[in-house]
Design brief:
This protein has one domain. Helices cover 71% and strands 0% of the residues. The protein has helices at 2-12, 19-28, 49-66, 73-84, 88-108, 113-140. The relative contact order is 0.13.
């Protein structure tokens, strides 16, 4: 999870909280299912980036513990919030991290090209598109 910690550092630059406080907050949480978090997809817009990153961390940890692929939900939301804040480098890093996680999942599970295109590509497609657009926006701003 070293890469996530690097992204957290980027995200909180300029934040009123110290990095140590954010990391302490994110490390306190344990994986809970989405319903126990009380989060519906329509209400994630009201969460701050720090809470969303905590959920990304939970997804990564759950993936490492269980061998299942992490859900893209919170990674997409973190990318959306980063773009709203015009922090395109954060958006790019988050998208790249999720794509890297899915590649790692594919390698560990020895997925064939056909399995990758039918199972992983549809899940990664929105983040791949967002990554492409964020790189264009970042280059022109």
């Amino acid at each position: 999870m070293g890469k996530l910690n690097t992204i957290i550092e980027k995200i909180i630059k300029g934040s009123a909280l110290l990095l140590s406080q954010i990391l302490e907050q994110t490390l306190k949480g344990t994986r809970k299912n989405n319903t126990s978090r009380g989060i519906e997809s329509s209400s994630t817009n009201n969460l701050d980036i720090h809470k969303i990153v905590e959920y990304c961390r939970d997804e990564i940890q759950a993936s490492e513990d269980s061998g299942i692929m992490p859900s893209p939900k919170y990674f997409e939301q973190a990318a959306i919030l980063s773009r709203k804040e015009k922090k395109y480098d954060n958006e790019i890093a988050i998208c790249e991290m999720y794509i890297e996680l899915t590649n790692h999942y594919a390698i560990i599970n020895n997925l064939t090209d056909a399995e990758m295109s039918t199972q992983l590509l549809p899940i990664c497609a929105p983040l791949m598109k967002r990554l492409h657009n964020a790189k264009i926006i970042s280059a022109t701003s």
